[in-house]
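step=encode ok
step=design start
structure_in=
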């Protein structure tokens, strides 16, 4: 008799399970994947915006599922019943599971607090850095405006890696198109990249200046101050890169939660349910405060695979130990900023290294 394993979401950790589906079936699992048709690689978000082909930045989940003999369901996941062990989908169907793994990702934290008075910002379009595929539409929007000889006034909100990447690559794309777009970056902090060394943050600031990005630091993003009044003109587009939080669907799940997501033990199991796992940005490792970054999902993948098989076989589960530090490379259009703890290096070599790492990751699953 087989055990039905339902995977919700096709994030970094679940990609590892797809690749090793044979080992899971050998352990006695029948596998169903509930996920969209494409996996968009967050590490290449800036590259997608700056002009890379869609296929170079994503994976076809339908093709991968068929290749590895996995049933693939594309209807969005909307709810979970832990008592009857069913997941519910947006099309009205539901799926029974014996073991469940959640890898549903994250969404952008809104810059305006709940209850704040939101100022009137005219007809500005809003773009979130997640889901990643929206950046393809943003790129097309910039291309269309350039073809119509129409200058855009664009504001990026957020001074972390995503905000810096968005501002730099919007500016780079505009320059490549010969479009006189106005790119401005608004940040809450007085410096860019708050978790990076000071010298690295100053280097990033110089690169943005070189790309003609106008940076506004120390802005109170609270809505009540009408912070966009500091701009010379009303923006046509506002790109929100204000940090990440667990996907919106997580808040309604009947599981132990905290502000960072589904509370999980070091075995990646839900704090309350041994047959429910959670990984990636939607999960919150108890007694740890981890940033929402793809490297966690990548490193959790092998541990998740081992523990699913161990659960089935009645053997010991493995603990996940997050890395104390990890390499991160900020894509600044034609240069990169490599960060590792207190060490950093900026330049074209860093960007080439990022291109190599990202391409190798996707090639692993093609």
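sequence_out=
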């Amino acid at each position: 008799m087989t055990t039905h394993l339902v995977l919700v979401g096709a994030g970094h950790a679940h990609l590892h399970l797809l690749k090793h589906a044979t080992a899971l079936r050998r352990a006695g699992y029948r596998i169903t994947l509930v996920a969209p048709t494409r996996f968009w690689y967050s590490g290449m978000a800036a590259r997608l915006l700056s002009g890379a082909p869609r296929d170079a930045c994503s994976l076809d989940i339908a093709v991968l599922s068929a290749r590895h003999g996995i049933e693939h369901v594309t209807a969005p996941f909307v709810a979970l019943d832990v008592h009857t062990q069913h997941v519910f989908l947006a099309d009205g169907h539901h799926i029974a599971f014996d073991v469940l793994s959640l890898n549903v990702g994250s969404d952008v934290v809104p810059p305006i607090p709940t209850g704040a008075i939101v100022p009137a910002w005219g007809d500005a379009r809003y773009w979130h850095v997640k889901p990643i595929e929206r950046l393809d539409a943003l790129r097309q929007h910039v291309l269309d405006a350039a073809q119509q000889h129409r200058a855009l006034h664009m504001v990026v909100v957020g001074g972390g890696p995503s905000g810096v990447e968005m501002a730099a690559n919007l500016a780079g794309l505009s320059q490549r198109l010969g479009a006189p777009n106005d790119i401005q970056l608004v940040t809450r902090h007085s410096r860019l990249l708050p978790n990076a060394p000071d010298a690295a943050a100053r280097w990033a600031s110089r690169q943005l200046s070189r790309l003609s990005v106008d940076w506004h630091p120390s802005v109170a993003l609270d809505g009540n101050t009408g912070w966009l009044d500091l701009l010379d003109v009303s923006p046509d587009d506002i790109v929100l890169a204000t940090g990440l939080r667990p996907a919106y669907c997580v808040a309604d799940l009947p599981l132990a939660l905290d502000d960072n997501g589904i509370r999980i033990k070091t075995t990646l199991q839900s704090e309350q349910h041994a047959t429910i796992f959670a990984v990636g940005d939607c999960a919150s490792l108890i007694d740890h405060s981890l940033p929402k970054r793809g490297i966690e999902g990548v490193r959790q993948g092998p541990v998740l695979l081992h523990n699913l098989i161990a659960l089935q076989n009645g053997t010991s589960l493995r603990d996940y130990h997050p890395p104390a530090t990890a390499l991160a490379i900020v894509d600044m259009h034609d240069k990169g900023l490599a960060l590792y703890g207190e060490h950093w290096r900026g330049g074209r070599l860093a960007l080439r290294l990022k291109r190599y790492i990202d391409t190798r990751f996707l090639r692993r699953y093609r």
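step=design ok
step=annotate ok -> DSSP finds nine helices and 23 strands in the chain.
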